[in-house]
Design brief:
Number of domains: 3
Structural class: alpha+beta
Mean pLDDT: 84
Distance between the termini: 88 Å
Low-confidence stretches: 364-405
Order of helices and strands: EEEEHEEEEEEEEEEEHEHHEH
Radius of gyration: 31 Å
Keywords: Membrane, Transmembrane, Transmembrane helix
Largest sheet: 7 strands, antiparallel
Length: 405
């Protein structure tokens, strides 16, 4: 609420002096004023007049004043005193930093940011060790000889948060609405495990996660905890901002757990990274010397793949992506091996769902991984097109090897 008080101010006025008929005098005077403790003030300039909005203790006040300029700015204010009261109580506003950032929309409108999410590894435990001979039919891209391995289970936590003001946030996990502040949620997911080596296994199954929701005055946070034995899988996290039964904001993102990994010795991991880099560089050089014919299938990765890349294997994954892009026509066998290893590196079965196929020279929208909104995973129909293209390429190679035309 505004408060009245006496304020001492230095005043200037015209006054006659013995040496000059018009001079400037100054002095300290006590002035009665109306004062406000504004959390923030938004000023919108209309050439000669400014419109002000000030937020004090959740209530909005407006007034006008002289200015010179055009534009709008919002800034933290603090105590401001005036010769008269500033307008009337114009409704609600948010005094927090969230309100300051969102005031460009409307000082009284509900607001919710996009989802900000991260993955934390809480605990890991080695439950089995052994070695595997990558030889003969089991030999894989950049993996030859006997490799010791460790089967490691990971307890992970996904933290998704939304900055908000007014209204409430309804969370969804795997398309299932979350009720209460703690509990569990069950949904269907395509899960992948690295064992048995060399290719592991995958299956659709019902997974169960535990969740917690923390609600603050200007923030809603959802925490999700995995069961390591469910392996690696991805799922959707969604939020809807609701006020008085009406939706005013929404956002969706894809999150992933890696509950089980096959860990090799650091020296082998480094050699795998270097080997994949060599294949990647070679594939890019060959691609430069070849011009695709119009309409020829070209591999395009969805921006969503960035959601599955962990920092520890980013370089290897980027190399595999280049190999997959550049070897579909020239070396389908290498293409297939790279796809299989890519699925293992990102812990996501069915990587074809992150790939689309377009004809060479076709224009496609450029979204970018760091664009404001994340793009959805491509549809199964596109994946089917990829499978058809790969199948035709493999069939062509097989016929060449058998001597048929």
């Amino acid at each position: 609420m505004p408060h009245e008080k006496d304020v001492q101010e230095r005043k200037h006025w015209w006054c006659p002096k013995w040496y000059w008929p018009l001079a400037v005098c100054s002095g300290i005077r006590t002035v009665h004023k109306w004062c406000y403790d504004f959390a923030w003030v938004k000023e919108t300039q209309y050439l000669f007049v400014s419109h002000f909005e000030g937020c004090e203790n959740g209530r909005l006040y407006t007034w006008t004043g002289p200015t010179l300029g055009i534009g709008s700015t919002t800034y933290p204010a603090g105590e401001m005193c005036f010769n008269s009261s500033r307008g009337g109580d114009e409704g609600r506003c948010d005094s927090s930093r969230t309100g300051l950032l969102a005031s460009g929309l409307s000082a009284s409108a509900p607001y919710a940011s996009d989802i900000d999410d991260d993955v934390l590894r809480l605990k890991q435990s080695v439950v089995e060790t052994g070695s595997f001979e990558f030889a003969g039919q089991n030999e894989r891209l950049c993996q030859k000889g006997r490799w010791p391995w460790k089967r490691t289970l990971h307890e992970e936590e996904i933290i998704a948060s939304v900055s908000t003001r007014f209204g409430t946030i309804q969370w969804y996990i795997g398309g299932i609405p979350v009720t209460g502040t703690t509990g569990s949620s069950t949904f269907s997911a395509l899960c992948k495990w690295p064992f048995p080596l060399p290719k592991g296994r995958s299956e659709n199954r019902a997974v169960k996660v535990r969740f917690e929701i923390a609600t603050e005055s200007n923030k809603s946070t959802l925490k999700i905890f995995n069961a390591p034995l469910d392996g690696s899988y991805s799922f959707a996290i969604s939020m809807r901002g609701v006020e008085n039964g009406k939706e005013y904001a929404s956002d969706d993102t894809i999150a992933s757990f890696r509950g089980e990994t096959c860990d090799f010795e650091p020296e082998q991991v480094d050699e795998l990274r270097r080997c994949l880099k060599r294949f990647s560089d070679l594939s890019k050089e060959k691609a430069k010397s070849r011009t695709p014919s119009p309409g020829e299938p070209v591999i395009v990765f969805s921006d969503e793949i960035s959601r599955f890349i962990r920092e520890e294997n980013r370089e290897s994954v980027n190399s595999l992506i280049d190999i997959v892009k550049n070897t579909l026509h020239e070396d389908p066998q290498l293409f297939t091996q790279a796809v299989e290893l890519l699925e293992e590196q990102i812990g996501f079965a069915g990587v074809s769902r992150l790939i689309s196929v377009r004809g060479a020279h076709e224009q496609i929208p450029s979204h970018g991984i760091d664009s404001g909104r994340r793009q959805p995973i491509v549809t199964a129909l596109v994946a089917l097109g990829l499978g058809l293209a790969v199948g035709l390429s493999l069939n062509r190679i097989a016929r060449k090897r058998s001597g048929s035309v």
